[in-house]
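User: quick one
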Amino acid sequence: MKKRGTIATLLRIFPYAKSALPRIILGTVAAVGAHMMALAIPGYLRGLVDSIKLNLNQSTSSAVMPILVPVVLAVLGLGALEAIMVLLRRWLVLTPGTHVEAGLRRTLYAKLQDLPVAFHDKWPSGQLLSRATGDLSLIRRWLSFGIVLLIANALTVVVGLGMLYSFNWILGTIYLLIVSPLWVIGFRFEKNYHATARKSQDQAGDLATAVEQSVHGIRVLKAFGRGGFITEKFANDALELRKTELIKAKMVASLWLYLSVIPELALGVSLFAGVWLVQTGQMTIGSLAAFILITSVLRWPMDSVGFLLSMTIDAQTAVERFFEVLDEPVTIRDPDEAAKVEQVRGRLVFEGVHFKYQDAPAEQADLLDGVDLELLPGESVALIGITGSGKTTLTGLATRLYEVTAGSVKLDGVDIRDLSREELRSHIAMAFEDATLFSASVRENVLLGNPTASEADLEQALAIAQAQFVYDLPDGLDTKIGEEGLSLSGGQRQRLALARAVAAKPAVLVLDDPLSALDVDTEAMVEDALRTVLKTTTALIVAHRPSTVQLADKVALLQDGRITAVGRHSDLLASNEHYRFVISSLDAAGHMIEVK
Amino acid sequence: MAMQGVQNEEKIDLSKDEQKAVRARSMKLLGELVRPVRTRLFGSLGLVISAQGLRVLLPGLIAIAIDKALPAAVKGDFVPLNLLIVGYLATAAASSALIAFFVRYAAKINQDILFGLRKRLFAHTQKLSIEFHETYTSGRVISRQTNDLDSIMELLNSGGNDMIAGLLYMIFTAVAMILLDASSFGIMLLSFIPLYFLTRWFQKQTRTNYRKTRVASARLIVHFVETMTGIRAVKAFRKERANEEKYEELVEDYRYVNARVIQLFGIYDPGLIMIGNVTAAAVLFYGGLRVFDGHLGVGVLIAAMLYVRQFYGPMEQLAMFYNSYQSANSGLEKISGVLEEKPSVAEPENPTPLDEPKGHLEFDAVEFHYGKGQTVLPSFSLDIPAGQTIALVGTTGAGKSTLAKLVSRFYDPTEGAVRLDGIDLRNLADETLRRAVVMVTQEAYLFSGSVGDNIALGKPGASQDEIEAAAKAVGAHEFITALPDGYGTDVNKRGGRVSAGQRQLISFARAFLADPAVLILDEATASLDIPSERLVQHGLKTLLADRTAIIIAHRLSTVSIADRVLVLEHGQIIEDDAPAKLIAGTGKFAKMHKAWRDSLV
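Assistant: Done. Structure below.
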């Protein structure tokens, strides 16, 4: 990651805030205006106090009123204007701020959906979530509040100091001299605070991840009785966050100390000097009074610098974290000009396909080391290989969930990288080993890849996958299945996932060990039904057992990253020792391999 | 409608009774959170009182400086001035130091409260039964533990300090004003009337709106989490666009309610400023008159003006506090709802000790159905002697997994009792039960961390040697050492880089390490390929040798190592004998076994 300064980092958010920018600028103007009203009031009081000194004790109400009333009216008018300016500022800035936040949230979400699976393998969803929620609302608050007030307050301080000068240059200089170290302190704070702020946001993301996993893995935790253990672990992480937060508080506290002591010190010294100036006749008492009132108006802008600075730095780290995702290259993209498969027949060809996970060590051989495999239209091929040989990875390459590192995959003669992902994935449907279902109705889950399918298609898909159990659910096809189908059994989920792939009516079906959780009877029924589909559909089926292999016209053996044999099951069983090792529980003579 | 627990959690407009119940439980929770730190809270209160008390003196000192010390100085006597200036500086420094100290002190208290709540919520969620998790969805649990907690953190972080400081400052200012110039205070008192009405309006408007933001943000999170955890399926089935539309809708809902809340405050805050400024003008007018009369010093007038300013300054902070309080309150409502949920599988209050579990299982007239649903297991009794390996077979939906879940106490039987070594499972402490009974399921979830960590979950604190021995025993050692960092390899999110079969091997190793008296394998070998299965079977022979085991497997190869086979159909045990005898017979199992044998070729 490139190191950027606070301002450079924060500036990156402005293209996303373009529409709100005019109103943010106007809002800043209104904020400055409000402060100016407050600053103008002491000027009027100065005149009043001085004329009181002149007219003391000798005034009748007719003499007093012309002096007092205009001042009071001015104070009233300025005060009212101040309130209106504040109203204006909030009205101008707040609603656009929420639009910017919403826009950022949508941008992030769209980007995350666009990023390849490899990215999601790497990033725990808790970290992503903390970016999409807490970080973005922080950015919104900074845009509609932090930056506006930071600018307005800085301007106010400058103007206020100018006014102090105009009342009396000696006093002004004294005040300025004493206050100026605040800059240094602020600058130093920025440097130190940044790392801590970042750490705390990252730790919060880690906690969110821990929470997420503790819920998704709840069955395992319960089965092993590790609730207490994981809670302790979580508590330790939470303690780390607590520690970081305390360091942050310590930093803010010492900044606060300087920010509040120094202006008071300046005021005290000025007061002393002011009295001396009044006594020696170099200054009127009204000017001194106005001087003091102005310093009190400046108090908040100066005090708030600490809070605004820390907010700005929090926002900076939030922006950094946002762009960490947004800067991530979408390595699996649509081509600029997408080709089209003119007539989809379902010929799927792997040509010299190489694949290696990005984070695999350099010296390690490619996981897929030159895979050549051809699936003719309507042909079904079973993919066989030992655990970890790359079968699932190979299935992911066909739909570009992962991208080949060399070689190519072609669908009906077109390199799949020349197709839009949308088109490619409408031709090829997958059923995963771990059936991911969404919290939606059975109907929506099954029709995910083909939302416009007819009722008959839906029923047919359910029948093929032997998933008729759904009709017995409380609301039948409209039953909402809990998130990830937690309330369904493994076999039920797997059948729904299979029905989903079938319902998509693709030219090519990619099935990753689709029947592993089914009992022998159900499996046989699914296979019988599936055969009718497979007659006309090309299929790549990852298989772990002979019964699944029966579905396919031929088998391909994946070994050491290559397809080392293609042929019929019975032929390979007779001729290929590795094949026998992988798929068969029987030895060459047909006897059960006994467990010793 | 009842508001017990998380029921009707998304309801916005509550009836009076519901409102009362929800408020009572969130206040109760707040009380519980505050109780452990209450002495320190008083300490911090003391700090703020002293700091604000000192700070409030400052305008008074300025008034005296102008009205008393200035004339003295004019006469050539600088002593009062010097004293005042030194006093002013000392007071200012002391109050600032106290506040800085308070900030740190309060941060510690806040973080302790927060930590306590975080841990309690996490632990409670872990205790809640599977039944709860199956319906509540992980997104909502996450939302409770992140977003809702954040709202409380915000309240504690800024709101709490500001509120106490602001309130005290206002009180002190009022007192100082009464002492300095009671009639100015009288004017300020009049300004309370519009203040009251403004605040009432604000209160009324915000109450329901905050509840809406909590609900909207939870929905947002639920959708987000589901997309990210199911990203493969999202991509494969081109759900992106539909997802985006849905998410956009949710984002807009959230934005809308959030903007409403912010806009309300955008009216309330300038309203406060207006009241403050009008009051200041009134004080000036009345004070000015009296100064001209000679009844009032100029310094006092200036101080009074300063006081009015200072009185209304914290009002803004109070309003902000009220704002975050409302937000946090809605968070508390939701969190207290989760905490109110009772685990349907509760721990006993006086657990029966079981030091050395033998593994004798008994089902005594057990009957089971989920919630109000159909009966899954009609009444049955079953005795499994310690050390016996049972294979449960039958078609999908016959009730095999349910039976396993009763033994591992994911659920309690509706009727009858399940006993381990003669003790009803409901009388065993969770820890005792889990040490004795471990279940490995088909779903082999891996937590982020290393492969070694994941195996060690079976026995926290296990040594590297123990971990490797376990992996070797189930045949996982070989593939693990082939991983980039061996046992130290990060398994990534949801075990992305490890195949399903390898995940199952890891969870086997986990179970091996846990070394329970009763081991349940529910389809734990489903994703294994045949070579791995052979290895596992070899390991199982040793693993199951001297413990009770219940094996559920569709692949009957695993069944061959069982001492006894139970065939389940529609929740009833229709066959029960040694595998060899059943195979030799003509029953259901014999048929299944034949079909399976045929499927091997």
